[in-house]
Amino acid sequence: MGGDCPPETDIKTMLEAAMRVPDHGKLNPWWFIVFKGDDRAAFGEIIKTAWAAREPQSTPEKLADEAKRLMRAPLVIAVISAPRESTVPVWEQQLSAGAACYNLCLAANALGYGANWLTEWYAFDPAIRASLKLQSTESVAGFIYIGTPEKAPEERPRPAPETLRNDDFRNATNRGNEYAKQGLGYVTHGPDNSVYKSK
What we know:
Elements: H1 8-18, E1 30-36, H2 38-54, H3 60-67, E2 75-81, H4 90-110, E3 114-118, H5 126-131, E4 139-147, E5 186-189, E6 195-198
Antiparallel strand pairs: 1-2, 2-4, 3-4, 5-6
Helix pairs in contact: 1-4, 2-3
């Protein structure tokens, strides 16, 4: 995405919309990091360094590509999931952070911008987490890239509602299992955000 960075008034509106999400217990279990201007390139250097540590044999071209990650849009907002100590299940608090990501995208669209919700490898990398000073209970719910679309978005295939709808709670068979990537297992993250893959 290209164009100029949205003005501060629009950024404020988008963040206000992001915060108007279901939030059991009124815990506000999320916070935001706004990347714009030179900060995108500065964070890109951190991403490049983290990639080089992961993949020491990387070519200069690959490292240059990693450094440009946040340059794909004039504005990038990281949504940080930050579960609070409470009686509210952590899972519900994480869902609230996901809703904040989506509301941020919707607000950007409503203001005439394009928005793309990504995580990618650096959302889970320990060095990146350290650079953002995330606590052990916090995680990146998404990097939201916002700007002017350079081309119309292409619609991707979507399942028909009837393949996931169940009208008999006693026999709910439409579970979408056919959409699974069979044999790939499940990717989860440990307390230190290390990746575990089960099969």
